[in-house]
Write a structure and sequence with these properties.
This protein has four domains: about 5-85; about 90-255, Rossmann fold; about 270-450, Rossmann fold (3-Layer(aba) Sandwich); about 480-570, no CATH class. It is about 35% helix and about 20% strand. The strands form six sheets. An eight-stranded mixed β-sheet has the order 8-9-7-6-10-11-12-13, sandwiched between helices. Strands 16-15-14-17-18-19 form a six-stranded parallel β-sheet, with helices on both faces. It has a three-stranded antiparallel β-sheet with strand order 2-3-4, with no helix packed on it. Helix 5 (about 120-135) crosses helix 17 (about 455-475), helix 13 (about 370-380) packs across helix 16 and helix 18 runs antiparallel to helix 19.
């Protein structure tokens, strides 16, 4: 059974050459029906499954009715014909939040954001925390295939990714902004930038480079396609600084730091934590020997191989590994002072961190814009040591030590750096050889960590959307008319060659006079090209074209700035 009665989409039922069809106007799809399915739809909003079977049993065989129900169940899973779950409009009527954001993150189960134990990747954990705190400032509607309330202020709505462009007018009327996540292989987002109706779009980025250049190229495509009132977010200033080498307008990259739950992650009696972990793994050395900690997937890109070298370099210390498993290292002969302490649920992670005297963050991938585990360790009063690359040092500040790393000018098989084991080893011993130094860094770590809160992150998102709306108000959709022409040289021109220029008219495409008088104004050909490009393309696309056409990049930048000023000044 399917669970009638159900709310139907806007349907147009019709027949073509004796075959019944339903045109789903909400989804812009036409579905072929059987005769019994057509009759069921006429009863779908008012009668239960049993009542429908009883009503139609005199006209159709039981198997035909059963097959029709099965077909309706398939269509419902595809998001067609029915609004599944509760009536969203009625639910929204009870909400008092002042703004609504549309959250579009395909490929991730919405419910997982409210069950953090099901998440492993730091990016998804950060999103989950951010989303839960963002509900204090806005209602969140996730794209999906049914209408239902997930939590206070959080809904799944019957709008798929493929529906966004078609429903852009309704989306524009309903939502203050669209929040999404940059994913390299996604192409669905690029068409949205072509439509000025959509509210501002914020694209969260947690992987500024890597994957053989694919991440950078994908980001540059989005940057080029974005409207003036869209933008990226990233957890650290590093991403903006990194992309300033590639783009002319790094203001599109906005810093959105992660946070930490300082009430969960906090210092505890260190010997108590060590004693409990020692008892669990059966290794009493953890209680009496200084410990170094690693909490991550035990993989090359996370620095596992370098961490093993640290253990070999420091036989007088205990090196603890907390992760899902030992991966390919499980079959190796490991250093005697390396101890695997297992995989633990999130509520036990503070105990694990507190069993560490020092925390080593060893990741070498191009996806480390922040280092969430670093902040969690700091909140527990554990001094961190991190490599000198990407965004992690900016999180640590003066609350930990930064070790040398060989940074690559481009990624090699997803790796962008190689942390120096010798310098890491020296930094570890600096902290562990002097109790006063360790205590000072421990206090700094906790003090710095508590300044990063998820509530600040949520408020920052709202502020960013407010700023993008201001940009939208300043945008000029009109463009001046211009033509290109050649002019005959004057008699005293020694070269006697045709001259080329662009003429800008004193009106825009709506034939509104925008300049002082009814005249034409000569521009350089380069200025005219920029003006023509900007009639149908974004400023970032014009940036790419001018960089290719004008050999001097400085001159190309000046040209674009001048023409944008002309456009904005004639809004």
């Amino acid at each position: 059974m399917i669970g009638f009665p159900k709310i139907l989409h806007q349907l147009h039922l019709f027949e073509e050459e004796g075959v019944p069809y339903a045109a789903d106007l909400d989804k812009a799809r036409v579905v072929e029906l059987s005769a019994v399915m057509m009759d069921i739809l006429k009863l779908a909003e008012t009668q239960t499954d049993d009542a429908i079977v009883e009503t139609l049993s005199t006209s159709y065989e039981e198997n035909d009715i059963s097959e029709a129900f099965e077909r309706f169940a398939e269509l419902e899973r595809e998001g067609l014909l029915f609004n599944r779950g509760e009536d969203l409009e009625r639910s929204l009527a009870t909400e008092s939040k002042w703004r609504k954001l549309l959250v579009a993150i395909p490929g991730i189960n919405v419910d997982s954001f409210f069950d953090i134990e099901t998440l492993s990747a730091g990016t998804n954990m950060a999103l989950a925390h951010m989303i839960q705190h963002l509900t204090k400032y806005a209602d969140l509607h996730f794209t999906g295939s049914r209408n239902r309330k997930i939590a206070d202020g959080v809904y799944e709505i019957d709008i798929g990714i493929g529906d966004l462009v078609r429903l852009r007018s309704q989306i524009a009327q309903t939502y203050y902004g669209i929040l999404t996540l940059h994913q390299e292989q996604d192409r669905w987002l690029l068409p949205l930038y072509r439509h000025p109706e959509f509210p501002p779009i914020l694209v969260q980025n947690h992987a500024p480079r890597g994957h053989g250049g694919q991440a950078i190229n994908s980001m540059l495509r989005h940057y080029a396609a974005m409207r003036d009132w869209d933008g990226f977010t990233a957890p650290s200033d590093y991403v903006r600084d990194f992309y300033s080498e590639y783009v002319w307008d790094p203001s599109f990259f906005n810093t959105l730091p992660n946070g930490v739950d300082a009430t969960l992650f906090k210092p505890m009696e260190k010997m108590v934590a060590k004693r409990e972990i020692a008892a669990e793994v059966g290794d009493d050395r953890i209680e009496s020997v200084p410990t170094v900690g690693y909490l991550s997937r035990v993989q090359s890109e996370k620095g596992a191989s370098v961490y093993l070298k640290l253990a070999e370099l420091n036989p007088h210390l205990i090196f603890l590994i907390a992760g899902p498993n030992m991966g390919r290292y499980a079959s190796r002969k490991l250093p005697d002072n390396l101890v695997y302490v297992g995989f633990h649920p999130r509520e036990r992670l503070p105990l694990i961190y507190n069993a560490f005297d020092v925390y080593c963050f060893m990741s070498m991938s191009g996806e480390e814009t922040f280092g969430l585990t670093v902040l969690e360790a700091m909140a527990c009063g554990v001094p961190p040591i991190v490599p000198n690359f990407d965004g992690v040092p900016s999180v640590v500040g003066d609350a930990g030590l930064v070790a040398d790393a060989q940074n690559f000018d481009h990624d090699v098989a997803t790796l962008v750096s190689y942390p120096c084991p010798v310098d890491f080893s020296e930094k570890i011993n600096i902290l562990l050889d002097d109790a006063e130094t360790w205590r000072e860094f421990s206090q700094r770590a906790r003090k710095r960590a508590v300044a990063f809160t998820w509530d600040k992150t949520a408020r920052r998102i709202v502020q960013l959307f407010e700023g993008l709306h201001q940009k939208r108000k300043l945008a000029n959709p009109h463009r001046l008319l211009n033509v290109f022409t050649s002019t005959q040289p004057s008699e005293d021109d020694e070269q006697q060659r045709l001259k080329h220029k662009s003429l800008v008219l004193s009106m825009n495409a709506h034939y509104e006079r925008c300049l002082m008088r009814d005249a034409v104004y000569p521009l350089s050909v380069e200025d005219g090209v920029a003006l023509s490009i900007l009639k149908n393309h974004t400023t970032r696309e014009a940036e790419a074209l001018l960089a290719a056409l004008i050999p001097d990049e400085t001159q190309a930048r000046i040209t674009l700035k001048r023409v944008r000023g002309l456009i904005d000044g004639t809004a």
